[in-house]
Specification:
The complex is a heterodimer of chains A (300) and B (153). Chain A is an alpha+beta fold and 300 residues long. Chain A is built from 7 helices and 14 strands. In chain A, the strands form 4 sheets. Chain A has a 6-stranded mixed β-sheet with strand order 1-14-13-2-6-5, with helices on one face. A 3-stranded antiparallel β-sheet of chain A has the order 7-12-11, covered by helices on one side. In chain A, strands 8-9-10 form a 3-stranded antiparallel β-sheet. Chain B has a domain of 84 residues: ACP-like (Non-ribosomal Peptide Synthetase Peptidyl Carrier Protein, Chain A, Orthogonal Bundle). Chain B has 5 helices and 7 strands; from the N terminus they run E-E-E-E-E-E-H-H-H-H-E-H. In chain B, helix 1 packs across helix 2 and helix 1 crosses helix 4. The longest helix of chain B is centred in the middle third of the chain and has 15 residues. Classes of the chains: A alpha+beta (300), B alpha+beta (153). Chains A and B meet through helix 5 of A and helix 2 and helix 3 of B.
């Protein structure tokens, strides 16, 4: 389903930006995942419009990037966040330029509702992630969300198992070691990376709060795409006594985007919805131009 | 052994790299950066962290590793202040860079330090910090108190 607002764009000219099509907030346990493919955004006039949305700090951030491609992707990332969050404003149209952002005490970006003029405070959470060729933004309500995307073809410079031994948990290393084909092993390594990153980003307390080797993300037996989180307790003298605490507090959704990327979404489980599955709605977008519904997936 | 005078602190430590003495001058003026003490273990070995500029050759070696990891062209101009994120590095790149630095310099970086490196300078400083080694001393923590009293913060 494509929604095009090109005609609206052609009517309004440089001074006023076209209206954004509003969106309904996700319901509980739903994540909306939006992504942009930078190669599909070629129009310099469109990019110029995007740069008009950014705050001065964001513009400085874009300028700091070395090279045109990195600058463009940084611009698209901020544009995606601003336009997406603005569209979820119910009751009134919010200028994406008026949104304010801040970082929590650990450095995780969030919306600063209090300092936004004309905004309704909303229980909306977002998180972004990007690679050279894809920029994604996840949106939830009431629960924190973390996302990570990685290029499927991303080559790891080090030996995959050596890398895993250095940074992943013992159980994850054991899992990877059982995969005989190096290419399949590399792919599983990347998928695991996205899941672990998504969790740390959902937690929102920085990497020191959850070093990668202190938790295991493993697939739930009997499911194809179910993953659970187990925390390894402090290493005791006898590794066999290492106890694990697996809880259902965090839900994971592993996905593939645009045939080119692995992605992972992690949300904190909302106690009110115990037992209900996690739903992810994926949409591709070019801000102000078009949306395309890609998929709606359920994860148990 | 460590010795402290009013103007300079120098120390030798048993280390595996070729670096032997590193001395940093402390002045009472504002050019003094910071001095912090690592955690104590019961063995009374302490790790002294002092912010001094890393040697140019360390910065150069770090730059080479960063260029390789991020697939930058050889003539990309990198300075000590160059930020990894501005060069397009994501967290996986940063971790790979840290691993490469560990291999190159034969050091071991703690995970919290690994994630906090954002520039070439910070990486070089961490390397030099880790290749300085440890000071062993016996006795009480009075030595520590003397140190903090003698050096203005």
């Amino acid at each position: 389903m494509r929604i095009s607002v090109m005609s609206q764009m052609q009517r309004s000219f440089s001074i006023d930006l076209p209206s954004l099509i509003p969106l309904q907030l996700p319901s509980r346990r739903h994540t909306h995942l939006w992504y942009v493919i930078p190669d599909e955004v070629k129009s310099t006039s469109l990019l110029k419009r995007y740069s008009q949305l950014l705050s001065q700090t964001e513009k400085d951030g874009v300028d700091q990037m070395r090279g045109d491609e990195l600058k463009k992707n940084a611009l698209l990332a901020r544009t995606l966040v601003r336009t997406t969050v603005a569209r979820y404003q119910t009751n009134k149209e919010v200028d994406p330029r008026s949104l304010m952002f801040k970082k929590n005490v650990y450095g995780k970006p969030e919306v600063d509702w209090q300092n936004c003029k004309n905004c309704n405070h909303q229980p909306l959470h977002f998180n972004i992630s990007h690679t050279d060729s894809l920029i994604a933004c996840g949106v939830t309500v009431h629960v924190p969300v973390g996302i990570d995307v990685e290029d499927k073809e991303r080559k790891i410079k080090h030996d995959v198992l050596a890398f895993a031994k250095r940074f992943y948990s013992a159980d994850e290393v054991n899992f990877l070691a059982t995969i005989p084909d190096p290419e399949a092993q590399r792919k599983e390594f990347i998928k695991l990376w996205t899941l672990k990153e998504a969790y740390v980003k959902a937690l929102g307390k920085g990497f020191s709060a959850a070093p990668f080797n202190t938790f295991t993300i493993q697939s739930i037996p009997g499911t194809e795409e179910g993953y659970s989180l187990c925390k390894t307790s402090e290493v005791t003298a006898d590794p066999l006594e290492e106890t694990k605490k697996c809880n259902g507090e965090w839900k994971f959704a592993p996905l593939e985007l645009a045939d080119s990327h692995y992605a992972a979404v992690c949300i904190e489980d909302d106690q009110a919805n115990e037992g209900a599955p996690m739903r992810v709605i994926v949409r591709k977008t070019i801000p102000f131009v078009e949306d395309q519904l890609i998929s709606e997936r359920i994860f148990l | 052994m460590a010795s402290l005078s009013t103007t300079s602190l120098s120390f030798k430590a048993p280390i595996q790299s070729t670096t032997t003495n590193i001395s940093c001058d402390f002045k009472t003026s504002s050019s003094f950066q910071s001095i912090s003490f690592g955690r104590f273990q019961s063995s009374k070995r302490i790790r002294l962290q002092i912010s001094c500029a890393a040697k140019p050759e360390t910065v150069q070696k770090v730059s080479d590793i960063v260029k390789e990891q991020l697939a930058l062209s050889a003539d990309t101009a990198l300075t000590a202040e160059s930020k990894f994120s501005a060069l397009g590095a994501d967290s996986l790149d940063t971790v790979e860079i840290v691993m490469a630095l560990e291999e190159k310099f034969d050091i071991s970086v703690e995970e919290t330090d690994a994630q906090n490196i954002t520039t070439i300078q910070e990486a070089a400083d961490l390397i030099e910090d880790l290749t300085v080694g440890y000071i062993s001393f016996s006795g009480s923590y009075d030595w520590m108190r003397q140190l903090t009293e003698a050096v203005p913060l």
